[in-house]
Design brief:
The complex is a heterodimer of chains A (304) and B (322).
Chain A (H helix, E strand, L loop, with lengths): L1 H45 L6 H18 L4 H29 L4 H23 L13 E4 L2 E4 H23 L1 H11 L1 H6 L4 H26 L6 H15 L5 H21 L5 H15 L12
Chain B lengths: L9 H4 L1 H28 L6 H17 L5 H23 L4 H21 L1 H4 L5 E2 L3 H16 L9 H23 L1 H11 L1 H6 L4 H27 L1 E2 L6 H14 L4 H17 L9 H22 L16
Antiparallel strand pairs in B: 1-2
Helix pairs in contact in B: 2-8, 2-11, 2-12, 2-13, 3-4, 3-5, 3-11, 4-11, 8-9, 9-11, 12-13, 12-14
The chains are: A mainly alpha (304), B mainly alpha (322).
Chain lengths: 304, 322
Amino acid sequence: VIGVLVVVLVIAYGVHDVAQTGLNGLSLGSVYALGAVGLTLVYGILKLVNFAHGDFLTFGAYMAFLVSVTWGAPLILGIVFAIAATAALGVAFERIMWGPMRARKAGLLQLLLMSIGLAFLLQNTIQFIWGTQIRDLDVNVTDTVEFLGLRIGRTDLLVIVVGFVTLLAIGLMLRYTLLGKRMRALSDNFDLAETAGVDTSRVVLYTWVFAGGLAGLAGVLAGAVTTVKPQMGFELLLPIFAAVILGGIGDAFGALAGGIVLGLVIEWSTLVIEPRWKISVGFAVLILVLFIRPQGIFGRARAI
Amino acid sequence: MTPPLGITFEAFTDFGFWTSVGILAGTYTIFTLGLQLNVGFTGIVNFGQAGFMAIGAYTMGILVVKYDWSFWLALPAAVLVAVAFGLLIGLPSLRLRADYFAIATIAAAEIVRITAQNARELTGGNQGLFGFDESWNGVSNSIEGWLESLGWSNPETLFPLFLVVWATALVATVLLYFMQRSPWGRVLRAVREDEDAARALGKNALVYKLQSLSIAATLGALAGFFLALNLNFLNPEEFEPLFTFIGYAVLVLGGLANYWGVAFGAIIMWTILEGTRFIDLPISAEREAAVRFMVVGLVLILLMAFRPQGVFGKKEEMVLGD
């Protein structure tokens, strides 16, 4: 389907425009994909639809802002700090909230509403500390690089490179390392994995480290190409959900691909419709996928 | 003597303050009754209630302002559009699992809001939509005149709206209460408890869920009308997902599977949200707003952790366990 879409767009708008918007789509898509992997792993393993995941992104962006703008350290330190801090945040809430709630056999809605409460708490704590002003990470967004006649912002290029390297690393990790296999096993069938001797509580902790760390990174990247504000995470959350569903909920590889595909589709849509509508394209894709293929574009038809 | 923290209590004895809190609480009672029917009694997690509210309010506004419809004709038309939208979303997505349905409805509501923001010719976008309330002002004035004839000199301008909102909320609560005790209501609960068993008894679960969603859409649209009349204009910001979540906070405050608890939850919630504006903390207004919602978030977390059935909910009716 994607291939046909590209061909049609190329015929209608020319190779240059399609490639140019495609680059923007890759940069947007890597943010979605990084956010989506964590969200889908947490869902798959813990059966938690985490509405606070978007605010993990916001938290990461503000951590980078704190280190690299307020303290004046180089951005790379800010990124590392953001990843570490957001991972720690994920683990902290697992320890004080999600772990105890699972032990009490809390239901789906109960956990869902708790995550919404947590989203309120995180977003407004950030707003309390940093205010509603729109900030930016001190990066050069005007510098562009040209190649093959395409222009791309240096920051966008950096986002694409960092995003893709990380996504590749996660993909390999999930596929080949023992931890990755354990994560996928838990996601497939938690009880069976536990019976088979997997130390589930450790894998759960690592899952939060991953989900938090990747969300933190995604937040910094989103903040670098756009701006940093308290609502940024919540605004990113629904497209990230769309990416998760596109890839089949709970499927980590699917989420990676779903994020990239969604970023591309959203940016390509600006060739056809006015850019101010582009955010609703993400939601339309989400609903369409739910209606036509709720198991995701790569998913097997299972009980949905 | 100045009270500690500079809290002034004058606001709490001010009739105008309670009228405006009352209108908000009444509007959100109607709004949340729909969620109660869906979540508490049918077991479907509707996260798009703000979208139904938006559809109701905007359809009414657009028909009156842009197409010169009569206000009284636009109201039922707007309810029909909201119900049609509910069926459109519900028909395919109610077959899915609860969590998918939640995400599908919130996405649908966001599409509505973004459309309201961007279709500027029709909705006025962020500038807002004005001028749909002439007919209502006439009614409001005659209620005011009637109140004066009862010997009340100079009543609040918004008091007639307060009366109509709460009359609607009361009627809706009583109706839902009796519908729930009817055979129809018992089937809904059967669907909630065990859909397969309900189906085995020959009940078409999907039809019952769609009916439940349609009623919620109707209540959402009604809440939208009152929101519009209260503000005198429509702005997409009033329909953010935040307001659906406030509805959920109201719902769990009042207790799940209890229609009478909804009004209680709504009054508590809006007294907190509006009343705290008068507490003079030594921080900026922006920070005060943040603290308010931090508290809402914390209340939601603690309620779900320690008393998931809410204040008046019954443990046996806990649908949260699945």
